[in-house]
């Protein structure tokens, strides 16, 4: 391949392992692409150019010496600017933390380092990871590489846009209400939110105690499987991380969907959905059927309550985390973020406790409704076509844009409340050449099954392989 920046995670790792490409050459190719195009996209916050080249040179030297290689050796990556690396600024997309230098390194970054990945720096994001569109009043808005006036999805805006633009092979994002899956869908890449507690959150900026998730945005489901195998698993520094064994996600990727039953909920996910989104999703279901899967429409009466409770939990927990800063630095927040946080203080504690106490019963109810006799749940990731930045800018016009802004994440939020593993993959493009995404959800700790279905779909389609013409 003439442009090494176009290699996926597994392609880059394999090329490096076989001696077909050096880590330094791959990093330089990514740097050249960033230099050429990121002024338009605005995905990068901090580019650690010299550090990345030094790390790549070290990987090249180790390979030449015959050292054992990690599963991500030589792979260029960048990450949402909320993953702490000791000694380097992490702004969290905010003015308040513009000069914050952590003393710890996130567990997931340490695991990626140990696997041989090359960290090239940090990426743009919504302020404190709190909006579904990716707007940022402090670092400037990130732009969709498929069509620059359109939004990228948030809050992992730079992660989605940068992977789509081929600035690096993969990126970590975070997902509290859809912030991995939304930019994955809107930018035409693959993104996974694992089961709640599957990936440790040590050294990652918190937003919601009970709904934050760490996960990758990549080109393919196979790429996500490889990264999830590296970053998942119990962390003694994170008491909330799950002790369940981590399977070999990549080994679970088979192309045989015979006997697989797909449930499609009738409620919630298609309310006021754009006809083009629905048609694209239905065409994607036909691909799964061609692989041997069956598709059944199911009724999920639990979704209305889930949609209400998820808003209560996320707002109260975010308001609690930000309480001191809201008292001491209220003027440093953007208008829309202040509005969301202040709303959290008005929710009675009894309502919050009710939302928490109903979580287990609603999870059981949803699983009984959706997974009884079925292996996965499939839905559109967004109900709408990709909106423009102007159409969803609530700082500029909150009255006109608020409803559209919040509707972006309507289909992703329920799975954060339920804690279920969910993958978003590109399943087509709309009439304006912008991506449409499909969400694949599995039972708790069944990430391997969701990734297997996503990979099988990608074996028969090329939506994930298309590159925006920057």
TrEMBL record:
Gene3D superfamilies to which the protein is assigned, alphabetical: Amidase signature (AS) domain
Domain annotation Amidase: ranges: 26-450
Domain of life of the source: Bacteria
GO terms of molecular function: catalytic activity
Transmembrane residue ranges: none
Pfam families (UniProt xref): Amidase
InterPro entries in UniProt: Amidase, Amidase_CS, Amidase_dom, AS_sf
Record protein name field: Amidase
């Amino acid at each position: 391949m003439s442009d090494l920046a176009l290699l996926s995670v597994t392609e880059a790792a394999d090329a490096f392992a076989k001696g077909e490409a050096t880590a330094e050459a791959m990093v330089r190719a990514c740097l050249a692409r960033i230099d050429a195009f990121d002024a338009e996209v605005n995905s990068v916050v901090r580019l650690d150019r010299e550090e990345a080249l030094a790390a790549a040179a070290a990987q090249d030297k180790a390979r030449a010496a015959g050292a054992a290689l990690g599963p991500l050796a030589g792979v260029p990556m960048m990450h949402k600017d909320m993953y702490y690396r000791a000694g380097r600024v992490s702004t969290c997309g905010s003015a308040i933390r513009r000069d914050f230098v952590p003393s710890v390194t996130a567990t997931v970054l340490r695991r990626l380092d140990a696997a041989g990945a090359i960290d090239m720096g940090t990426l743009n994001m919504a302020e404190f990871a709190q909006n579904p569109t990716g707007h940022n009043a402090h670092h400037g808005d990130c732009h969709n590489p498929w069509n620059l006036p359109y939004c990228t999805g948030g809050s992992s805006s730079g992660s989605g846009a940068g992977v789509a633009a081929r600035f690096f092979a993969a990126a970590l994002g975070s997902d509290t209400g859809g912030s991995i899956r939304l930019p994955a869908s809107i930018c035409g890449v693959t993104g996974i939110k694992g089961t709640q507690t599957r990936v440790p959150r040590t050294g990652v900026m918190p937003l919601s105690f009970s709904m934050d998730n760490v996960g990758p945005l990549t080109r393919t489901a196979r790429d996500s499987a490889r990264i999830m195998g590296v970053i998942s698993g119990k962390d003694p520094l994170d008491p909330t991380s799950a002790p369940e064994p981590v399977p070999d996600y990549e080994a679970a990727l088979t192309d045989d969907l015979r006997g697989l039953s797909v449930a499609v909920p009738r409620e919630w996910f298609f309310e006021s959905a754009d006809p083009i989104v629905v048609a694209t999703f239905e065409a994607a279901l036909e691909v799964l059927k061609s692989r041997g899967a069956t598709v059944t429409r199911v009724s999920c009466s639990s979704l209305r309550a889930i949609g209400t409770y998820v808003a209560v939990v996320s707002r109260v927990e975010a308001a609690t985390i930000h309480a001191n800063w809201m008292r001491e630095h209220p003027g440093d927040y953007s208008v829309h973020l202040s509005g969301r946080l202040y709303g959290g203080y008005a929710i009675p504690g009894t309502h919050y406790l009710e939302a928490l106490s109903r979580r287990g019963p609603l999870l059981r109810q949803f699983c009984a409704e959706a997974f009884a006799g079925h292996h996965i749940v499939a839905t559109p990731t967004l109900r709408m076509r990709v909106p423009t930045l102007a159409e969803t800018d609530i700082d500029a016009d909150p009255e006109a844009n608020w409803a559209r802004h919040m509707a972006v994440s309507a289909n992703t939020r329920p799975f954060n409340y339920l804690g279920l593993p969910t993958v978003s993959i590109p399943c087509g493009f709309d009439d304006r050449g912008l991506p449409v995404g499909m969400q694949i959800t599995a039972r708790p700790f069944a990430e391997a099954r969701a990734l297997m279905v996503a990979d099988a779909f990608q074996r028969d389609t090329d939506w994930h392989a298309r590159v925006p013409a920057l």
